[in-house]
Each structure stands twice: as structure tokens, then as C-alpha cells.
Amino acid sequence: MLIDSLKQKLKKPPHDTRYRTFWQSIHIDVTLLAFLLLLSFAGFFILYSASNQSPRIIEWQALKLALAFGVMLTVAQISPATLQRSAPWLFAMGLILLLTVLIMGHTGKGAQRWLNLGILRFQPAEIMKLAIPMVLAWYYHRIALPITLKSALAAVPIILIPAFLTAKQPDLGTAILLVMAGASVLFLAGLSSRIILTLGACIAVSVPFAWYILHDYQRQRILTFLNPERDPLGSGYHIIQSKIAIGSGGMFGKGWLNGTQSNLQFLPEHATDFIFAVCGEEFGFAGSVLLIILFMLVVLRGLYITVHAQDTFSRLVAGSITLTFFVSFFINMGMVTGILPVVGVPLPLVSYGGSSMVTMMASFGILMSVQTHRKLVTT
Amino acid sequence: MTLRTLQALIAIFFLISLLIIRLAYLQISKHELYTTLSTKNWLDLVPIEPTRGLIYDRHGVLLAENISVFSLDIIPYQVSNINHTLQELKKIILLSDDELTQFQRQRRQHRRFDEIPLKLRLSEEEVLRFAEHQYRFPGIVIKARLMRHYPFNNSFSHVIGYVGRINTQELNEIDETNYSASHYIGKTGLEKYYEDELHGKVGYEEVETDASGKSLRVLKNIKGIPGKNLHLTLDAKLQLAIESALAGQRGAVVAIEPASGQVIAMVSEPSFNPNLFVSGISQKDYQALTTSPDRPLYNRAVHGLYPPASTIKPFLALEGLDAGFIRPTDTIYDPGWFQLPNNSRRYNDWIHNGHGTVNVSRAITSSCDVFFYRLATDMGIDHIDDILTEFGFGVPSGIDLDKELSGTVASPEWKRRVKGVSWYKGDTVITGIGQGFMQVTPLQLAAATATLANRGHRVMPHLLLGTQMPNKPYQAKQPILQDQIVLEDEKTWNIIIKAMQAVVDSPQGTAYRFGLDREYTLAGKTGTAQIIAKRGRPDERDAQTDIPDRLKDHHLFIAFAPVDHPQIALAIITENSNHAVKTARKIFDFYLTQPSGTKRHVDRQPQTKTQKTAP
Question: Of A189, A109, A87, A271, which is closest to residue B2 (Cα–Cα)?
């Protein structure tokens, strides 16, 4: 309905302003904003229960969400052209920060991911989530699409160096997302299917080698993913308890605040990475599907913006952002339901946590910018 | 590019379908399985220890109770640095090395969130002192718990026994579920024999727990059944009197009410304090008890084996008369020794020059050995064994105590089996005076004496008068009658009993000097058991001042009173000491000459040396 009405408005010729609507003039995509607010609202409900009704956690989450929405609206004001120009600088800055973390990072939860900036602890890998698609889009913007193998190869260091540095911290989840963000640009830029398939085959072959590079705990996670009962009290515990939580939810769930798995602490990380299991337990199959639909609305809106973007840079960035968003919540839900291995990826907008939320919302800001800075061109 | 977006959209819908199928699988197909698993996760059954039954004497004096004590418990998972905490704690509360070792041992056996007692029985001051400093010790709590306590300390310890922590061997023998909350199990004595009655049935609390196993709230309470209270046949006041009469000696006394078979006193000296065992005895104390040459832990009344010596004579005389081997008027001449035909060995009498001419009554009264050497030889060992077995020797009395010994009534068959040699005529001769291979427990002697007092009416000796559940009617235990001893001529009982009365009444009696100035009739028989083989028979009045204590003779005395309506039959043995008769006299005096009315009432407040429990 909302999309239809917007389409209607788009068809109307403008009067005297550059922008068609008031919302567009302040660079807000109302549809996306509505979907995001809906999702955040649902997230609050789940987090309230998952945090054992901790007002402190809810307050913090609200504060962070407010901050993140602010960042989103701010970023939306920047025109795609400016974003395009700043892309290489953002990437360079991100790379320097990543190296800094590696040398003198703040250790949190056994991993060096954080850079302590006074009151804010900041995860430089998050910048890369935006910087990689932007710098690739900036690069491919000049070339005629579809891209060739030669130009695709140029992307390899741009993607892999930050991903490697991030994986080294070690943060496999974010590293995977970085690779996915870069790869999605290549995919959208029209890298030939043959090359994609070949690459896929190469990756499959290199898996045994990758095994040696992985940290022991990562190997454990993969082994445990393949067979959680292998270690029911150790690394398999997460996934077993998560499946129990979801499975015991049934069709309509145990009801809000009635989940025994999370409220009685059987489910670890229930307010962060495993929050989807709380949703599954308390709201059942119906609630989980509803949450997935909310996520999908955001994805569909993102793809809509991508398709309607006016230049290559905007399209590539918008498409990559949307696909990365999809990948991040899919990986999270996949690991919580036990169809993917456990990698530390939070559920966007629902999980309790800061750094990734801000980048996520900044990326939605870019989507809004792309959508609302469209020039009036008659087609 | 639009094509690629479309391709991506298709991939997205494919992946989302996978996710939804997965959710449907978990939440719809496997819903029941995961519901079961989730319920099992958070429901925990916490067992609650049933209150152990109390033990009373026959007049309601409390002999074993549960007192509430305050213990200092540690919940290890709430304490960050246990060693440091213990160091700090030591500054406030005295902790012995024993308590610390005990704690460390238990810590290994418990889950992290179980409360482990560090110090049992805090004093009032300690409770207050700790309360003051409690804020400094998270994870350390003062907890009220019930602890078994024996108010009379050393008295009754052999009969009642004690409880202690359940060991691995016991774990295999008990219903583990029923003991899942129990701290104690009966280890010895009545506490062990009546363990099932005393223990009761475990109760449960259905508790909601979190992942660490900590309970959050109680959902359901399934009440257990407390243990039954035991009412014993023992008379606490008599028991205490016997104990003080026997104090400083090694020996045992068993007193039975003949008509009912009720054991009214059972004393074994020296004794021990059972309270030491309840909270775990220290290595040092335990060592002291086990290595003491006086063997205080061992219940001489049922585990002590002694030669019956001359106390056997009335039983043999009874059979000799009844079976016609002798007549009451038959006499023999005792020159001071006995000889078997065609055998040069002389069996001496305890009086060197002999008793002269004696009949059976006189032989009992002055304990003539030669008379009984001859009677035994005439009767033959098989006949002797028959009558002794009829009186309960050589077989367990059936008393309600654990591992009662049966003693030995030696027979040719027994000797071949155990010793591997054949029976000699001489073995029969010395059986006549209760020496040789025969061994009896003080309990068996007392039971046989009660049978004598009852003129053949046998009742199984027992310690349990009845049981009672709280708020339920008292259940009396019925005495168990055993095979009666029926004589050809009932008058034979009178001959024997008269002869036994003369033991204390007649100047020729072996206990005459201890029988003077009585207010009641008494029948008894003395005995002297040799520790080392000496050339002659010991003089039953010999104080044996010239030989080492441990080699002195054991003295025995069996007796009952009053003769016409026996109220008490007893057997006493004093090891390496001749105080048996004197002590027995004190016991009879105490039991029978108390002003009537007060006898049945005992001071309800026992003298205890134990500290008062903290409020």
C-alpha cells in the first residue's frame, strides 16, 4: 500500500521543488523507516523477555537504537555523489584502524575487536562493512558493466585484506560478512556466472587448507555444528539448548516472558547472538515467521531502492547493503536453528549490542540517501 | 544488473524457505520431543531428609534425639577464592585441621552449588561473631540443621550404637533414592538394627532450577514420612546405676525381666561417647578408641565370648537329676581331685583338700568341681550339649542387635571340624565345670538364667518395647516365646533354685559374704574363668594379688530375684577382677529396694556435658 502510494507520487510531475515530497526533501524514506521501526519495536519485545526483564538493558538498547537511528538519518543527508567521493578515504581509514586494533586493541570476550575511544568502544571492522562495498562501487563506477575478470581480480585484495585482519582478531562472523559484502558487489556488477562457479569450486577445494588456518575454537564450532551431541556440555551446549528452546515453542509459543529456556539461563547468549531462539520459544512458529517477514520487508524495500537507483555506484552500494543485511540475519537465524555453524553474528536490530547496530543503521542511511537524492529525470 | 537483483531475490526466497522449513521441523514435527527436553531442563526434584525417629527407654526417658545445631556452610560456587576465604574465616572462627580436611574431602564429592558444612555445631558466640562479619563472606552461610545427639553420652552407647555418614559400602546396600537427602545411617547397635524404622521415607520438593542447578522456587512439596520412635525395654535408671557400679572395670552386665524377656539393662564397660561419631570422629580420637587395650568400642554383652565356668553347674545338675543320672540324696566323696579310669591325670578341685561328702545341692552351693567332673563323665558330652542347647547356649539368642555372636557348645563333631582333632574323655570332664572349649556371651548367660528363674518358660530376649509414629498409636512388640523346657518332675526346679539360694544364704555358699542383709530373696551361682592354665583350680575367693592384672581370672555371676516372682535375672562378668558378685549385689539392691513409686520415675533431665545448642 505504502509502496503503491509512493509510486503514485513518483508519477506525478513536480511543481517547483527538486523533490517530490516533504519526506524526500528531508531525505527520509518513509517506507524503509516504517519497516525498520516495526522491526526495532518487535526487537524490544523480544529483548525485554530475553534480558529477564532488565530495565537497564532495555534503556541501553533504546539509547543505542536512538543513536543508530540518528546516525541513519544523518547519513541519509549525504548525497550519493559525496559518498562516492569519500569511499576511498573511508576505506583507507578503516584499514588503518584495523591495523591499530591488531597492534593495540582492547580485548573483549577473548577477542581483540575493540578500539577504546573513551566512552565509546568501537569496532573498526564495522567501518569495513560499509567501506568495502563503497570502495568497490566507486571503483566499478568508472568501468562499463558487466565487469571483466581483470577488474574483478582488483577486488580480491580490497576484500580479503580487511577480512583477513578481521578474522585474525578473531571475529569469523564479521569477516564472513565482509567477504559477503564485497562478493555481493561483484555479483551485482555482473561478474560472469562461469567465473562465480569456478570461484565456488576453488573455495570448495581450498576448504581442507582453510581448516589449518582456523583457530581451534572455530574448528570446534564447525565440528560441533556437524554433530552437536559430540560435546553437549561444551561447544555443543549452545546449539542443543537453542534447538530445545525453539522446538519447545511449538506453533504459538509459550507466551511472552514465559520462556523457561532463556529465563532460567539454560540458553546461553540469549540476549545477544541467540535471541532468535527466545522469539522461537515464546512466540512459536507463527511468531518466528512473522519476524522473518518483518526482516524480509526491509530486504524487499532495499532491493526496490537498488533497482530504482539512478547510477552504478548507488545501485552497487544499495544492492550490496541489502544483500549483506539479508546474509547477516540469515546466518544468525541459520546458526540458532542449527542449519549453519555457530559464528558470532548478532541478529540485526534485535540482539542486544552496539557497534554493529550503528553500522547497520548507517547503511540504511545510505539506502535512504540513494532513494531520496534521485534527480528528476524524465524517462 | 536488474537481472542480477532478480537472481539474488530468487536465492533469498530459496534460503528463507529453507529457514522456515527448518523452523517447522523443529517447532511442529519435533515439538513434543523438545518440550520434554525443556521440561527436564528446569524441573528438579530436591529430596528432603525425613526426621529420624527418637529412642526412649521403657519409661520415656529420651536416649537418642535430634537437636538443631547451627553449622557454618560453604556454597563453593559463590566463593571466588576459597583458600583466601578460609584464611580470613580462621581469624573469626576456630577451625581445626580436621574440619578443614573433612571439608576439602567433601568438596570433591559435591556439586559446586551444594552447601558443604565446614564446621558443625557453632557456639552461640561464634554465631554472633560470624553474623557481625557476614558481609565479608559471600557464599558462606549459617544453617540450622538437625543432628543426632545422645544425651547420656557414654551410657547406652553399645546398645543404641550411633549414626554416622553413609560410606560407599553402605551405599550399595541401601535404597539410594530413599537416602538421597540423608546425612546419617545407623552404624552400630539399635541405630543399625532398626535403621529402616528409624529412617523413614524421603520427601521431595519439586523445584524450578536455573542452568547452574540453583533452585529458584518450590513448585510442589511431596511430604516424606518421618522415622518411627523406638521405645526400648531398657530402664535408663537401672542402666545408669549398673554403669556406675561397674565403673573402672572391664566387663558386662545383662539384666532381663524373666517373664517378658525384656532386656532392662545391657552394659558393657569401658564405653565410648557415640556423639563423637555423629559429626565424623577425628583420626586421633578414633585411633585412641581402636588401639586401647580395654577395647571400649566392643559390646561385651553380645560380642564378648567367655567360658561360663561354674555358672554352668546348675544347668548340668538340673539335667543330671531330670535324666536320672543322680538323685537328690546321692552323695560323692571329694578328695580334692578327680581321675578317669585307667588315666593318671588328676583333675583338681578349686579347694585343694576337697569338699568332702557332697550331694548335688551342696555341690552347687559350694561349687564342688569333683562332683561335676563326675556328673559330666557320667552324662557324656552329647547329653550335656543337648541340655546346654536347650537353654540357648551355642545359638544366637535372637535379640534385636546386629551380629550377635552365638558362642560355642563344643561337641566331638565341632572339635573335629574346627580343631581337626578328636574328642577326648578329658574334654568332657572339664566341660562339667564350664571350662574347655565352651564359650558363651553374657547375654546368653542372662537369658539362660531368666529361663531358670521362669522354671523352663523361655522368652526371646529383646530390646524393643514398641514403636510409635508421630501422631499415631503406639505399637507394642509382642514377646516371642521359645521352646519350653519341660522336666519329668517339676520339683527338680526347686532343688536347683534352692541350691542357688544357698549360694548367697548359706555360710558354705560361694557368694555368702555378699548376700548378707538383704530385703529380698536371691538365687545365684558364681563362676571363675581361668585365663591361664594353672596347676590347680583357682580359688573362687582368691584375690590373686600376686599376678599381673591381665592374667587374673574373669569372675562371673548369674542370679535372679526375688525367687518366687522374679523381676530381674542377670548375668555379670568382670574381666580380670573378682568384683562380679559385689557389683551384682549393688544392682539387685538398687533395683529391688528402691522405695516403691520412685523406681519407675527417672530424672528426665539427664546430666549432659555437651554444650548447649545455640539459639
Answer: A189
Q: Considering only CB atoms, which residues of chain A are within 8 Å of chain B?
A: 145, 184, 187-190, 241, 243-251, 260-261, 264-266, 280, 284-285, 288-289, 292, 296, 299, 303, 306-307, 312, 315, 319, 323, 326, 330, 333-334, 337-339
Q: Sign of dihedral through CA atoms B217, B221, B225, B229? A: positive
Indicate the SS3 state at residue B368.
coil
The structure's pTM equals 0.62
Smallest Cβ–Cβ distance between B26 and the set A184, A246, A319 belongs to: A246
ipTM: 0.88
Residue A7 lies in a domain: no
User: Do B211 and B322 share a domain, yes or no?
Assistant: no
CB-CB: which of B16, B23, B28 is closest to A296? B16
The residue of chain B nearest to residue A283, with distances taken between CA atoms, is: B27
Interface probe, candidates A238, A244, A254, A307, chain B, greatest B C-beta count within 10 A: A244
Beta-strand pair B337-339/B203-209: unpaired
Please indicate, yes or no, whether residues B187 and B200 belong to a single structural domain of this protein: yes
Q: How far is A356 from A345, CA to CA, in rounded Å?
A: 9
From B47, B83, B121, select the one nearest B280 (Cα to Cα): B121
Q: In this complex, do A330 and B15 lie within 8 Å of one another by their Cβ atoms?
A: yes
Q: How far apart are the C-alpha atoms of B455 and B101, rounded to whole Å?
A: 58
As averages over each run of 10 residues, the pLDDT of chain B (615 residues) reads 86 95 93 84 76 91 90 79 82 79 74 71 83 82 86 91 83 79 86 92 78 69 87 93 89 93 92 87 84 88 91 92 89 86 83 85 89 90 90 91 88 88 88 89 94 91 89 80 85 91 89 84 90 53 62 89 91 89 90 61 39 35
Angle between helix B369-379 and B381-390 (nearest 10): 100
Whether A15 is covered by a domain: the verdict is no
Say yes or no: B211 and B350 in one domain: no
